[in-house]
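Hi support team,

I'm filing this because I wasn't sure whether my run with adenosine-5'-triphosphate finished correctly. The job status page said complete, but I'd like someone to confirm that the output block is well-formed before I use it downstream. Pasting the exact inputs I used:
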Amino acid sequence: MTKATETSADSAIIAQHIVRRFGDRTVLDDISLTVPRGELFGLLGPSGSGKTTLIKLITGIDRADAGNIQLFGEPMPQLKMLQTFGYMAQSDALYQELTGKENMAFYGSLYGLKGKVLADRMQSAASLVNLTDHLDKQTSAYSGGMKRRLSLAIALLHEPQLLVLDEPTVGIDPVLRKTIWNELRTLTEKGVTIIVTTHVMDEAEKCDRLGLIRDGKLIAVDTPVAIMVQAGVHTIEEAFISLGSERSEHS
Ligand SMILES: Nc1ncnc2c1ncn2[C@@H]1O[C@H](COP(=O)(O)OP(=O)(O)OP(=O)(O)O)[C@@H](O)[C@H]1O
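And here is everything the job wrote out:
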């Protein structure tokens, strides 16, 4: 890819030579990645490999020690870019003493939503995650999966151009998980870019492209099929093991 293309606002995310260290430990080591608009991009890697750290840098929640990141052509971090993405963190940031509806209304108001627009968005987001009948319950009475679904609904409220989902389907049953993945696909068809971290291999296969991350390095970035072909295997799980061990042998 040429330099001219890499500075284009057609890309949702451009990360160049990102390094993040904590103390003397290099958690992200020279990561470069371009995600075009409307792509469903999956970050796959074992626990502690640096997935959350990378998405925190992409959203400007954290700052890299070296390298640069652009979101929709804008250098990050930047406060005004908060409006462009919805972020569903790994741990749910919900007010336990409020109801589901009150949590949604609170976060919606932070995005400047009010009145009928807010009410309509709350209704459609709640319906998407199958929570409509539980909105008047206090969040402390929700199950883990319900809390995840409420967090997802909140991330969607302001109809962001980019959705960043850190392990969105943990604790969610297979039927609802399928519904959510179908909806993520519908969103990308409308031009929304989605970056999702997952440990679930069959979810990884549903992504347009995957970034395999291991020990802070991107060991492969391609479509799931191309990654399996490259590794000469039939599953993403095998590809991950095979490509990861090739790397260890050569490092
Ligand atoms: N603020 C921090 N201070 C020190 N170390 C950190 C900090 N944040 C992350 N780390 C370390 O960086 C490494 C990568 O963490 P990260 O949360 O990015 O991994 P992950 O791939 O998202 O893991 P998981 O799948 O378990 O969420 C871990 O070893 C973690 O302990």
